[in-house]
Specification:
Number of domains: 1
Shape: elongated
Protein name: Cullin-1-like
Helix content: 55-70%
InterPro entries: Cullin (IPR045093), Cullin_repeat-like_dom_sf (IPR016159)
Number of helices: 2
Largest sheet: none
Strand content: under 5%
Oligomer: single chain
Organism: Trifolium medium
Order of helices and strands: HH
Length: 60
């Protein structure tokens, strides 16, 4: 079993903000390309990993 790299709050939050902004633009009908399956899985995995890291890096 390989050890996952710890994602710090600033790095993870920046990535999540980009995904949230993209989703808001799509929902508001602004010109924005749809999420690719790869983009969606990267966003989901980042959020999951941040929420399941060991303390003090557990951001759930």
């Amino acid at each position: 079993m390989s050890k996952r790299k710890t994602i710090d709050l600033e790095q993870g939050w920046d990535f999540m903000q980009k995904g949230i902004t993209k989703l808001k633009n799509i929902l508001e009908g602004l010109p924005e390309p749809q999420f690719s399956s790869e983009d969606y899985m990267m966003l989901y995995t980042t959020i999951y990993n941040m929420c399941t890291q060991k303390p003090p890096n557990d951001y759930s």
